[in-house]
Amino acid sequence: MSPFMLKTLLCRWNVTTLAVLACLVLISVLHLQQMHYASYLAKPIWYQQQKWDINRTTFRSGEQCCQPVNNIFLLKTHKCASSTIQNIIMRYGDRRNLSFVLPKEGNYLGHPKLFSKTLLPVELVPAFGFNVLAHHTRFDASAIKEVMPPDTAFITILRDPAELFNSMYAYFGLQNYTGATLQQFANDPDRQSFLQSNRYEQRFGPNQMFFDLGYDASRMNESAITEAIERVDREFDLVLITEYFNESLVLLKNLFCWDSQDIMYFKHNKRKADDRISRDVRKRLLRYNSADARLYAHFKAKLQTLIDAFGRDRMQEEVANLRLWKRLIYAHCVERMGESKQPETRAYSKHVFSIVLRPDVQLSAATAAAVTSTTQTQPTSRRNGSPNDKKAMTMITSATTKTTTTTTTTTTTTTRTTTTSTQAEENRLCADMARAELPYTERLRAKQRFLARSAQML
Questions:
Q1: How far apart are CA 352 and CA 273, in angstroms?
Q2: Taking the complete model, does pTM exceed 0.85, yes or no?
């Protein structure tokens, strides 16, 4: 159509006709978007069909080659040190440009509802699928397998149920909800029945780990609980234990073929108040959380079996190395645990400590370095304890030297460039290890949108 004919046609149309046409175009666009979303929900994400199985994985030693695990599902249980594990996994995926299953806002994926593919915002879904799911959700194995690759490693973390309930009761202010202190609550069957029937925010109550795993223990008899524990044992490749946190990380590192730097951590969401419970209260809480107590006992025993297979002496040596590296990195990065003025490291709750970085660790520079750095998208197989282990050791050596000697000043441009690059890398490691869950999630969301748009343009 020529410009003259188009001009003539437009002159004949009145404003009403143009408005109707615009509405029809808008409705068509919205309909196409809805069809696209519906088709996305209807079709499975395509992945190469292979399954990683921890039961066929042996513990390695020496210079054996292995393939790093990049597809990971973490069931983030409440008040089990899961935020610390989540930070480790988010750092690992962030460094390698892996794709994350993320909520549209906040840090929950459906909880207290079970996980569903319909929870995923389409603008955060890359065409090539996902690598990591590590945010709060209620476990539904079949729904999660719809969006994750077949070779995904399923992990979670459990904690002593009495200590978990004590921590949860204080963190979420359940005293205000039940009208009783923890000691009073432990001795009051009526209040216990109330919380069992009316979970706080429909999420928090007795047998919290069972609830996060997708079960309602209050509706289950002993045999059903036994079957559920056996099912969890089949569905999860590795269950970490909070009371054996370092040992659990050593097993994870070895089974996942990760480097020592990958499992370095600062404690996140550590409570300011360390309220101890009496033996009597502990006994009553274990009875009140009996399903969780059985679940915890089963996987605590299984972890001990894995440690035996790994080797007690070898485990003791690796845990000692982990603690040394962690202590030195902490001294290099952290000024104190307290109230942080940096939004990136400020804890969500006033009841827990924030990580306050040293003044010479520039968070903005670290963030910029993270954005501009080029990282490998899918690492290839490597030998145990090689590339990042050496990088971490270099950093630790520099941290130790900083406290004992002054480095010799060099004048060459190459040395200055290397020093600047090393400093930026160290700052990034400090910042990523200290970054709180919500700010890190926002950062990953922005990155995920970019990855999703880039994939659509290919």
A1: 8
A2: no
